[in-house]
Amino acid sequence: MLLLLLACKQPDQAPEDLDALFHWFWTHYDTGTDEELRAGGANLAPLIEAASQGLVTNLDKEEQDLVELDQPGDPAEATGVYVAGPMACTLEDLEAIYSHVDQEELFESATGRESYDAYERHYTSDFDAYMARTTPFLTWVTTYTVTPVLSTYTAVIDGGMRFIPAGEEGESLVVQRSVLPAPATFEGNSNDFFEQDYQLDIIIPVGSAAAHAYVTWRDLQSAGLEDESNGVQNILLDG
C-alpha cells in the first residue's frame, strides 16, 4: 500500500512568485524530482528573462537545516539579495564555467584583474560521472582568501551542482547550491565578520541563450558596514 501511495504522489507544485521560487528551489535542490524542478524552471524563466535585482526574504530555520553546518548561526541575521537576467552563453557554456575547478583563472582571463588573494577548489564527487550524466550531482569544496575592502579573510565553501534533463514538463536546467559551514577567519585585529553565506544559482535555457538567477543570504560586516546597508548590498550584487 505504501508503494502505491508513493507511486501516486502528486508533484509538489512550484510557486509563481519570484521570492517564493527562490526559497522553493533552495528546499527542492536535493529532494525535488526532475519533473518538479522542470516545472519550477518553467515558472521562473519568464521572471528572469529581463535584468533585475533586489532583496529576498530571509531563510528560516527549517530551510537552514537542509544543509550541514559546523556552527549554525541565526538565519534571520543573513540578508538575502538576488540578481537575475539574460546571459549570452548557453546553458552548457554556463554549466562548464560554474563547474570549472579553477574559478580564479576564469575570472582573471575574463576581466584582466585579480579577484582572490588565494583560491583552491577540489571536487568531492566524480566529475567525469557528472559530465557523463550517470549522476545528477557534482560537489566540491572551495577555500579562498580575499580582501574585499580593508580586511582580509579566508572562507571555506561547500558547493554543489545538479543537472536536470529536459522532459515533457519543460527545458533542462542547472541548479547550484553552496554554503559557508563555519564563519570565515579574518587576519589581524579586524572587527569585521563573515558568519553565514547561503548561495543559490539557477540557469535555464531561453532560446539559443540562457537566463540566470543568483541569490545569496549573507551575514557579514565589511569596513564597518553590515549586510543590511545599501553599500554592502551593492558590493554583493556587483560582485
The ordered H/E elements are: HHHEHEHHEHEEEEEEEH
Strand element count: 10
| Helix percentage | 25-40%
- Measured on Cα atoms, how large is the radius of gyration? 18 Å
> What fraction of the residues are assigned to beta strands by DSSP?
25-35%
Report on the structure:
- Strands 1, 2, 3, 4, 5, 6, 7, 8, 9 and 10 form a ten-stranded antiparallel beta sheet that branches.
- Helix 2 (about 20-30) runs antiparallel to helix 3 (about 35-50).
- It is built from eight helices and ten strands.
- It is globular, with a radius of gyration of 18 Å.
- About 30% of the residues lie in helices and about 35% in strands.
- The protein starts with a helix and ends with a helix.
- The model is unreliable at about 1-10 (pLDDT under 50).
- It has about 240 residues and is of the alpha+beta class.
Outline:
Helices cover 28% and strands 34% of the residues. With 239 residues, it is an alpha+beta fold. Strands 1, 2, 3, 4, 5, 6, 7, 8, 9 and 10 form a ten-stranded antiparallel β-sheet that branches.
List the helices and strands and how they pair.
Elements: H1 2-7, H2 18-28, H3 34-48, E1 52-56, H4 61-64, E2 79-87, H5 91-99, H6 103-111, E3 118-123, H7 127-131, E4 137-146, E5 153-164, E6 173-179, E7 185-186, E8 193-206, E9 209-222, E10 225-226, H8 230-238
Antiparallel strand pairs: 1-2, 2-9, 3-4, 4-5, 5-6, 5-7, 6-8, 8-9, 9-10
